[in-house]
Amino acid sequence: xxxxxxxxxxxxxxxxxxxxxxxxxxxxxxxxxxxxxxxxxxxxxxxxxxxxxxxxxxxxxxxxxxxxxxxxxxxxxxxxxxxxxxxxxxxxxxxxxxxxxxxxxxxxxxxxxxxxxxxxxxxxxxxxxxxxxxxxxxxxxxxxxxxxxxxxxxxxxxxxxxxxxxxxxxxxxxxxxxxxxxxxxxxxxxxxxxxxxxxxxxxxxxxxxxxxxxxxxxxxxxxxxxxxxxxxxxxxxxxxxxxxxxxxxxxxxxxxxxxxxxxxxxxxxxxxxxxxxxxxxxxxxxxxxxxxxxxxxxxxxxxxxxxxxxxxxxxxxxxxxxxxxxxxxxxxxxxxxxxxxxxxxxxxxxxxxxxxxxxxxxxxxxxxxxxxxxxxxxxxxxxxxxxxx
Length: 389
Ligand SMILES: *Cc1c(COP(=O)(O)O)cnc(C)c1O
What we know:
Aspartate Aminotransferase, domain 2; 13 helices
């Protein structure tokens, strides 16, 4: 049996994998087991921030690997402290809690919000507003936070205490704040899995006004939008607001599992000894790699991301067979006349890896993708979108 057959036999069939086995990669190029080359426009779902096997990241990870791979949170270690300091200094937030995935980072954010509201306003203020069409993870509680019934149906009952507001519907948000006892409002500034849909300026403004007025916490889920992905360090920065809590994961670790819940002034001391924990959280190797990643997401890089994004949007918006392009920075969704799956498979055949988000073709290139590879990938995508091709 080959790898694909054994995978189907021995691994739970939760993923509809492409018929493609990847072997090795460097930067924005990746090769299958037969040596065919692909330009990667998916980065392992917004994880490989600087592409495959980035030299500086490898160096940081390797040197930590040869020194101390894990110690547990019973002891002090340096890499997680360095990363925490860097996260706080770059965002103005105050404290962090480390975990290993986006779902866990969101779980922590939800726990902090519940405890803050219970301490301050009373235990009955335990409801969290999330948005319809959102995605916050696969644990029972983050599934409850996820505003999409398709993910819920087989796993009921889910955690209580979530109500859903249509994205960009300020009137509905206002009426939910009036009718329910709300602890927090949780949102992605660009809904990723939901179809690469950015929130409107007006809606984000409404979230923060309502939160301020009613002592409701704001939680930005920056798992996908974070770490430079949207052309700002964190997606909320595009809107000139600062949440009380944000979660991030995916691109922060650059390819190793790492989640973090970042806490602002209001909530920095809500968690105390024993109220939360994680065996692997703050792992030295993951954190050493993340320090290398985060230290390089600077203004110069972010400007380049925004400019290259502009290039992609202009080229694709005017292309035959493209209905619309949505998103921000290097998180883009293309609505195509053809079925998205057909376009994605055509791209793969022609050496470009792109993925899907709802009915759209989703692009998540490495933040440092070279212009020549980007141009080549965009041309391939344009060809794949053409009618009758
Ligand atoms: C991917 C994602 C998650 C879940 O992250 P995991 O690491 O898979 O648990 C949560 N929220 C958003 C916005 C995501 O894109």
